[in-house]
Amino acid sequence: MKSWIRKIKKDEKAVSPVIGVILMVAITVILAGVIASFVFGFGQKMGTAAPNAQLVLSDAVDELTSTGNENIFYMDHNGGDALPCKDLRILVYYKQTGSLYKQFDYDESNDYFYSSDGITGSGMGSNDLFEPGERITFTEDGDTNWGAGTYTVKVLHIPSGNFIFTGDVTVR
């Protein structure tokens, strides 16, 4: 009977050294990955948060004609964060096709949004902020005539790369 007991004790083995080394290497690699993520800032560079604003579009009271210099539509800021105008790009798309119609960037020296063909958006005041209670009036110049129809307007917050507003306006 003693030989049988000795045989059991003799055959019992712990984790082999090879398995132990593999486990230690795996744990080391996992810890190195976690430490590297903190050192290199992964997870912390989530980008700039986009502001929140309640914007409303409406058609201007002018009926569009071929004479130009008419108000096209309004964008009202009804609440939320004050929006630095230099951080915004306003994109207008044809609703029917989804293709880009106009792009408005901000001109800090003149305090208005402009497109390449002379259509402007103004009325924010001179502090370069679009704040609650203010209205941007988009106006065509004498050489550019805006067509009647339905447009999708998107406001891009440039630092975050997010659209903070998307809405439709029907221009008559």
From TrEMBL:
Residues 13-96 form the Archaeal Type IV pilin N-terminal domain. InterPro entries: Flagellin/pilin_N_arc, Pilin_N_archaeal. The keyword Transcription regulation does not apply. Pfam families: Pilin_N. Keywords: Cell projection, Cilium, Flagellum, Membrane, Transmembrane, Transmembrane helix. The chain crosses the membrane at residues 21-42. This is Archaeal flagellin N-terminal-like domain protein. The lineage of its organism: Archaea, Methanobacteriati, Methanobacteriota, Archaeoglobi, Archaeoglobales.
